Amino acid sequence: MPVGLENILSCIDQEAVKESVNIINEAKTRADNILAKAYEFAKKESELIIKNAEKKVDLISKRAETKAFLQERELNLKSKHEMVCFIIDEAKKVLYNLPDEEYFSLIFKLCKKYFKPSKCKMIFSAADLNRITNTIREKILKLADDVGTKIEISDKTRNIDGGFILSYGDVEENCSFESLIESNFDLLCDKINEILFS
Question: What residues contact 159, with CB distance under 8 A and at least 6 apart?
Answer without folding.
Answer: 125
